[in-house]
Specification:
By secondary structure, the chain is of the alpha+beta class. 32% of the residues lie in helices and 20% in strands. The longest helix has 54 residues.
């Protein structure tokens, strides 16, 4: 196209390279197959499906991240499934970022705490290219999360359950995972993993133990003693201030009486 326009004298020579770059970078003129990276949080399984037909992907175009889309258009095996869009990457590998309401790349100034960025040095900021959160045909990978299961089983995604290799560490998260009550011992429900001939378990965080309660009571008693001591010192100070003022008053009265006596 660029060569034809250049032949008619409608485009300057530098624009030819612009068209070539546009063709190679954005994938605007030629669209390849898109990979759908599907994950099922219930079973812990993951599967990659490659879709060549753009008509099957039309319901996903112009949808934002975190939007829920039906999977009926992908094929009969996905009938009844509902997927949530979790993200994706374009053909050059730039990730999608939530909150960027466009379907192309933008350059943003990132700092600590923002997604798609990891701080290398303390306090540093960096300008990076990221893809908008709107799904388009220029994506090479689209991440889908199973929200609702359909009628049929999908091999490698819903037909088997993969056990969790690493379980939660926080005590409240362990109680939530196993539906435990407050009186149950959390230490008996930690997910252990096999390492050679032994098993390892993570250190439970925020675990309430008798030692912790005793330490808490000790710290509270120290604070209480400091408060009582401070109150007593305050009372003694005010008492001493009253005595001092009385002494000063008596000394002043004695001095005035002495001067009056000397005048007589």
């Amino acid at each position: 196209l660029a060569q034809a326009l250049f032949g008619f004298g409608l485009v300057w020579p530098g624009a030819c390279w612009h068209f070539v770059e546009l063709n190679s970078c954005s994938g605007f003129f030629e669209q390849g197959a898109m990979k759908l990276n599907m994950s099922n949080p219930v079973t812990g399984m993951q599967k990659v499906v490659e879709i060549d037909d753009d008509k099957k992907l039309l319901p996903y175009f112009d949808k934002r991240m975190a939007a829920e889309v039906s999977g009926d258009s992908l094929g009969d095996e996905f009938k009844g499934y509902v997927f949530r869009i979790g993200g994706g990457n374009d053909k050059q590998g730039f990730p999608m970022k939530q909150g960027i309401l466009c379907n192309h790349r933008v350059r943003l100034l990132f700092k600590k705490g923002m997604s798609c960025f990891r701080e290398r040095r303390k306090g540093c900021r960096k300008r990076k290219s990221v893809r908008g959160c709107v799904v388009g045909p220029d994506l090479s990978v689209l991440h889908l999360i199973v929200v609702k299961k359909g009628e049929q089983e999908i091999p490698g995604l819903t037909d088997e359950v993969r056990p969790r290799r690493l379980g939660p560490k926080r005590a409240s998260h362990i109680r939530k995972l196993f539906a435990l009550e407050k009186k149950d011992d959390v230490r008996k429900f930690v997910v252990r993993r096999e390492v050679k001939k032994t098993t390892k378990a993570p250190k439970i965080q925020r675990l309430i133990t008798p030692n912790m309660l005793q330490r808490k009571r000790y710290y509270k008693s120290i604070i209480r003693k400091r408060m009582v001591l401070g109150q007593k010192m305050k009372e003694d100070y005010h008492k001493r201030v009253v005595e001092y003022r009385q002494e000063q008053k008596e000394a002043r009265a004695a001095e005035v009486a002495k001067k009056k006596k000397e005048k007589k």
